[in-house]
Design goal:
The structure is a homotrimer of 281-residue chains.
Chain A (H helix, E strand, L loop, with lengths): L5 E5 L7 E5 L3 E6 L4 E6 L9 H16 L4 E6 L11 H4 L4 H19 L5 E5 L3 E2 L1 H8 L3 E3 L4 E3 L11 H8 L4 H10 L3 E2 H7 L4 E2 L3 H13 L6 H21 L1 H12 L2 H20 L1
Parallel strand pairs in A: 4-5, 5-6, 6-8, 7-9, 8-11
Antiparallel strand pairs in A: 1-2, 2-3, 3-4, 9-10
Helix pairs in contact in A: 1-3, 3-10, 5-9
């Protein structure tokens, strides 16, 4: 896979030197002092997870794994959207080959993030529905800015969140709350999310959210990194294994479902609504 | 299976027209306005779950599944008992064939209720021990009237709640609380049940309990029914599969246990106690 | 296995007659009135879990299982340490045969305690890191004296707590809290432990802690012991089975890990630190 990368040293007044790399749709900045990498999604306007953003996310996670970063903080360049989730255009009247590549990449990206050996935290600085919530709940810690919403709202769109979305959700929420929210396609406000444990802390803005993520990653300062990583992977082994063993089946299930006329019709109506909304603004 | 059914259109002053069907021991009323079915257990005096009530429950659940109801509310015609659980008379000095049919029917009824594609809620308008608690925790939501008790109290009777009773309980309660309560055979008051999450809300009376169940089912108004149903079934697949794969084993385990002389003796003493109690009243 | 045992009848002023037996490193006192056995670890200075203490614990658990005790309360003879966990000397530059026996014994002791048919409670009258926390969370109830700490801090020592430590932890804590604490190697104060549910109650001193454990075991007074024991074992079956099925693999995994030069070096540094600390005091 060919990707253009920009490697640069950024010196900012009053801040620590950062080593920064960028793919087309993500940037990675490693703080020189803390050794923590900030991975920023940058696909305007809503960080819709299309094939290319998912590829870039995976590459950036791999890079952070291999460059000895002390942690990974996932955030967004948008001021209102963390990620709007899977790009509907990938699923509506899909190209046969591309949709296979798209879903396979989503699997790969999740396996890399959920199973990452590095401490992970999400600075949720905007709305975070569906795939956005998946990314956030795949991290070990979540700090969220007020007045946004987060949740797996797939059923509202007529889609079924696959089993591993459910696993990420269940790693954070009690079963009773997780099942009901997923059935309802419920979006939680920042305050509601804090109350049920879907997020761990709130922060007034993105900067403060990142600071709190840095503080969380700092709790591992005295911990042996190898022992930590093996412990985390042992905790998540069953969830990761379940997808790894059933990747093909999971792909076929998705393709079958997404190609149902009723689902295509629903996605079409949804897209039409988005277009009208955009025209009005 | 032959069952007498009464189909009638009921028009009540000040209420919505209801389509109502009845088996011998259950009634189903579908509210014309909301499209929600109320399934009422009606086997006086305590809705003891015998073979026939379990059969009627299963038929009524199937009917609600197939008649396009928007939800199922399970309640009782008694003013003090939701369901007293499995009918001890089915287990004490049992007929060899009937007890097999009884347990197999219990399995079928649970599989239908726990795995129902329709949103389910229990309006718990009376005491709900053992099998009564199983029915309630197999629904997705529970509203309970004060001054009653609910719990899996099998160990108090010298019986072991099978693995799938445990699964229903665990779908609602944290493991630490669920295990301890099941070991103790603990009955929770309405207030205690609310505190630990065994129920979701309280209501002053049956009518209000049903209203709150209707409101819960209303949260699915904008949700795609197929996506909702597949999501729920995915959440419950492991529990349902476990019984489906082990039905014979589960039946034999129950038969072996219930036929132990010590268990039969215990049931006999319990029945004797019930008779004395009844005489005093 | 040869063990010297002392059997004696102890009559104390103002207390109930106790039947007491002792192994070299543990004592078992059965209260004549309550029928509850107190199992005291007595390997000064810190109840380090070496091969012999683990053997004696297993023998004492077996004894309590077979002498018809109504419950088991695990506590420590030390006034500041419940148990400091696995004896590092068993793992540092280990003898090839002894370390196999040591780990196999740890497995056996855990299987016996976690799977015990008798109601179990821990009176945690001192610090309880790592293996100490494993023993405490393998019981059904925990009462802890203030100003001590408890947790699985293996990652702080560069060690990975095996899957069954994790299972015991998860039987008590929600997944989100359990995973994070295990990754951090977090030690909880008595107050923090109460808040998250890692312990169930606090008590001002050991005597009061034991009283509260007695009260917990008393909640089973009206429960059929066989039904209770089968119910508990059904709850814990999956966890127990996982180790039983993978004992050899678990042993080899431990041996491989503990013999890593980096781990040996870490243990050496840790032991050196302990020696310096001891000299200063």
């Amino acid at each position: 896979m060919m990707r253009s990368k920009v490697l640069s040293l950024v010196a900012r007044a009053g801040s620590n030197r950062m080593m920064s790399t960028a793919t087309k749709l993500t940037t990675v900045e490693v703080n020189d002092k803390t050794g923590i990498a900030t991975l920023t999604m940058n696909r305007p306007p809503v960080n819709g997870l299309n094939l290319e953003l998912l590829q870039d996310l995976k590459s950036s996670i791999d890079e952070i794994e291999s460059n000895k970063s002390r942690g990974l903080i996932l955030t967004s360049s948008s001021s209102t959207i963390f990620s709007a989730g899977l790009d509907i255009l990938e699923m509506y009247k899909p190209d046969k080959d591309r949709i296979r590549a798209f879903w396979t990449q989503l699997q790969d990206t999740w396996l890399a993030l959920y199973g990452s050996s590095v401490p992970t935290a999400a600075a949720i600085n905007g709305h975070s529905p569906a795939g956005g919530c998946l990314l956030a709940t795949s991290c070990e810690y979540r700090v969220m800015v007020p007045n946004f919403t987060i949740g797996l709202n797939e059923t509202q769109l007529g889609i079924v969140a696959p089993q591993w979305f459910m696993a990420s959700f269940l790693s954070v929420l009690p079963q009773r709350i997780a099942e009901r929210a997923l059935n309802q396609g419920r979006m939680f406000t920042t305050e509601e999310a804090l109350k049920v444990g879907l997020i761990d802390e709130t922060a007034n803005n993105k900067e403060e959210a990142i600071e709190k993520c840095v503080a969380f990653i700092g709790t591992f300062a005295k911990v042996n990194p190898l022992a930590r990583s093996l412990t985390k992977q042992q905790f998540r082994a069953a969830d990761l294994q379940q997808l790894q063993n059933g990747r093909k089946e999971d792909l076929e299930k998705f393709l079958f479902f997404v190609n149902q006329p009723a689902v295509q019709k629903g996605l079409g109506i949804y897209l039409e609504g988005l277009k009208k909304k955009a025209k009005k603004q």
